[in-house]
Design brief:
Blueprint (H helix, E strand, L loop, with lengths): L8 E4 L5 H11 L3 E6 L13 E2 L2 E2 H6 L4 E5 L4 H11 L4 E4 L5 H4 L4 H7 L4 E6 L14 H7 L20 H24 L3 E6 H7 L3 H9 L16 E6 L2 E6 L6 H9 L13 H6 L1 H12 L4 H10 L4 E3 L3 H5 L2 H5 L3 E6 L3 E6 L23 H9 L3 H9 L3 E2 L12
Parallel strand pairs: 1-2, 1-6, 2-5, 6-7, 7-8
Antiparallel strand pairs: 3-4, 5-14, 9-10, 10-11, 12-13
Length: 409
């Protein structure tokens, strides 16, 4: 089966995470992603651990299935190459500080003159407009400013950063959505356009109930641990040998069933807990009783009982549990990718499943500049001698990358 985006070519100037994640999503769906790196080191993510056989696992996981060309964009000859390449592709992606591409002479207005159908996707911390436009930003800055850290963690505890880079990941997902949207619109209008994705905007967009709760109540939401602000019980509980998550939401008829299974039938008709809103209002009194009941049996006991009773529940898994989970394995969400130097590494695959089209990992990540000669030949018709002359002049590189030997000792 063909992949749905196998007719799309992307020139990807992004680095580290937000942009590379978006490009990875599109690569998994079939796009030919050509990663543009600056010689001699390439994407700084190549230096991020952990490492296997001198390769960054971090870079490996986000840049699989892409090709790499190395061009020095600080030089006129390098910028001219980029201008020529932009005429031949569908999408250009960048995640530099706003204004950088314009200062280099390769901004959207310049590129669209040569390719009116070009989609130009910019991802930045705060977007191309606004008072914070020029401020530097990385994931934790955006998470902090976007409010998610203020509602994550234990009540009255210190702020907690979620264990994954949601600022980058959500921004990257919206970048991919924006690109797909612009490509669809181009099919109708025949024209390209610029896409402006702010990581802060993306964080605000997924605050969902937290924002509405503030506007309705006038009170800023606070961290609740694993609890839900308006459904109880809806949280993690300690079983005898691990943690379990249970969710009773909008179905009060499940409350007496849960109480019976836990052996706390006296709670069924307790006027403090006989409705969902009352349980939420009185959670401080209810939680210790439920914790004590859950601790009496191992989590597999509870999972079996709750499944039979149609009560939503699941184990609170570690990452080791997740990658070995039979459902995750059945869905082929963990797939092995083999690289000639790094060896074989399992990575998380795409969750997109299509009935008539293929999707999935296109191959291993590239070495820096691995495909320079190949891409310049395919898109610009350059022969090996021309590429070699550019390489000798330092305009392009066909190999390289950071020396991480000191980092891996």
């Amino acid at each position: 089966m063909a992949k749905p985006l196998d007719d799309i070519t992307i020139l990807d100037l992004t680095w580290v995470l937000s942009g590379p994640y978006a490009a990875m999503v599109l690569s998994d769906l079939g796009a030919d992603v050509i990663k543009v790196e600056r010689p001699p080191w390439g994407d700084v993510a190549r230096t991020s651990g952990p490492y296997q056989n001198g390769w960054s696992g971090y870079f490996f996981s986000i840049n699989r299935g892409k090709r790499s060309i190395a061009i020095d964009l600080t030089r006129d000859e390098g910028r001219n190459l980029l201008l020529d390449l932009a005429e031949k592709v569908d999408v250009v992606m960048e995640n530099f500080t706003p204004g950088t591409m314009d200062r280099l002479g390769i901004g959207y207005e310049t590129l669209r003159e040569r390719n009116p159908g070009l989609i130009f996707a910019s991802t930045s911390g705060f977007g191309q407009t606004g008072p914070y436009r020029d401020h530097p930003a990385v994931d934790i800055i955006v998470q902090g400013m976007g409010g998610v850290m203020s509602i994550t963690g234990e009540p009255d505890g210190d702020p907690v950063r979620p264990g994954v880079s949601y600022g980058d990941i959500v921004g990257g997902l919206y970048t991919a959505i924006g690109i797909l949207t612009a490509l669809h619109e181009r099919g109708k209008s025949g024209e390209g356009q610029a896409i402006d994705i702010s990581m802060l905007d993306a964080q605000v967009s997924v605050l969902e109930n937290a924002i509405m709760r503030y506007f309705v109540t006038g009170e800023a939401p606070k961290p609740l641990g694993t609890r839900h602000p308006s459904a109880t019980p809806f949280q993690a509980f300690p079983a005898a040998d691990g943690w379990i998550v249970v969710a009773l939401a909008f179905r009060d008829e499940q409350w007496p069933i849960l109480c019976a299974l836990l052996g706390v039938t006296d709670l069924i008709d307790d006027p403090r807990f006989d409705t969902g809103p009352k349980r939420t209002a009185n959670h401080a009194e209810l939680e210790p009783v439920l914790f004590e009941a859950f601790r009496k049996q191992p989590r597999d006991h509870w999972l079996k009982e709750f499944l039979a009773a149609d009560i939503p529940s699941g184990p609170l898994n570690t990452i080791e549990d997740v990658v070995n989970d039979p459902q995750v394995r059945h869905r082929e969400m963990i797939q092995e990718v083999t690289h000639p130097v790094a060896g074989t590494l399992p990575v998380a695959s795409t969750p997109v499943r299509l009935s008539r089209s293929e999707s999935g990992i296109a191959g291993p990540p590239p070495s820096m500049g691995e495909h320079t000669e190949e891409v310049l030949g395919e898109l610009l018709g350059m022969g090996p001698e021309e590429v070699e002359a550019l390489r000798e002049a330092g305009v392009v590189a066909t190999e390289g990358g950071p020396d991480i030997s000191e980092l891996t000792r």
